[in-house]
Specification:
Number of strands: 0
Number of helices: 10
Largest sheet: none
Shape: elongated
Number of domains: 1
Structural class: mainly alpha
Distance between the termini: 66 Å
Order of helices and strands: HHHHHHHHHH
């Protein structure tokens, strides 16, 4: 997780907890019986719904999505440009070393196809298949998280009902009411917190990261195919920069002086370049 996100998460979490403390005591909202019903019930439903290995995979994916940093699009473009230059200077087989050393699995896969001299259409089919099933696996993990998120409020209602039954049975006994009302109310609270504070955000973050990784994979695939076709690195850079946002391309914009020199534009000191469009055009006969 990025440092800014971590700082924001800490501040917002403290603000959330502060809301509970503002008009009461935090201990009022803690009930071990409610916690056992919601957590235990949701975990049981998850184990009945999914294989244990699937839940372990989801746990690893969520941990990785928060614990590891993705390379930016600009970094991927720079890597591909360097590979294109190396390929033109030393040949495709020189990328074998980069294939062994790179930590980007999708890029390693593409470089392997290059080194093995696959046809362009074969490379595209292999990498598209890789992207397709990567997306399916991530969507499956997201589905598991959202399903568990649906379980939590349901078991919160179960805990609420479990508190209401003895309360109604002992309606004439004030002591029973005081013991069962917290169970009924805090169970719903725990169910909503587990669903909306953890599992739904986990699923949303996983989708966001998946979209980012798919974009990086698309850039890599286009770069690999361009390297295979021996595209000029300068042309390749211009092509790959199309994937970047305008703010990320600012450093690559051609300076105004070069545009003027290239197209022989001569402006006097009193004329601003932005005013060219305001000049009257030639008369049309």
């Amino acid at each position: 997780m990025q440092r800014r996100n971590l700082i924001g998460l800490t501040l917002c979490g403290l603000l959330f907890l502060g809301g509970f403390l503002f008009k009461g005591n935090l201990s009022f909202y803690f009930n071990i019986a409610s916690l056992m019903i919601v957590a235990g019930g949701s975990a049981t439903a998850a184990l009945l719904s999914f294989q244990l290995e699937r839940l372990r995979i989801v746990l690893r994916v969520v941990r990785s999505s928060y614990g590891s940093r993705l390379k930016s699009e600009a970094e991927i473009v720079d890597i591909l440009i360097n590979l294109a230059i190396k390929s033109r200077m030393e040949g495709i087989l020189s990328l074998q070393k980069d294939e062994d050393q790179t930590s980007i699995l999708f890029l390693r896969r593409g470089l392997g196809c290059l080194v093995d001299n696959y046809e362009p259409q074969q490379i595209r089919d292999i990498l598209n298949t890789e992207m397709y099933f990567f997306k399916l696996r991530r969507e499956d993990s997201e589905r598991v998280l959202r399903t568990i998120a649906d379980f939590c409020p349901a078991f919160g209602i179960v805990g609420s009902v479990a508190g209401l039954i003895p309360m109604l049975a002992g309606i004439d006994d004030t002591g029973i009411i005081l013991k069962t009302v917290p169970l009924a109310l805090t169970s719903i609270l725990y169910g909503l917190i587990f669903a909306n504070f953890f599992f739904i955000p986990f699923a949303a973050n996983l989708r966001e990261r998946t979209n980012q990784e798919l974009l990086l994979q698309k850039i890599i695939m286009e770069g690999i195919l361009a390297i295979q076709g021996e595209m000029n690195p300068t042309v390749l850079r211009t092509k790959l920069l199309s994937f970047l946002t305008p703010s990320d391309r600012q450093a690559d914009l051609v300076p105004l002086s070069r545009i003027q020199e290239r197209f022989h534009i001569r402006l006097d000191d009193r004329t601003d370049f932005d005013d060219l469009d305001d000049r009257p055009g030639p008369a049309v006969s």
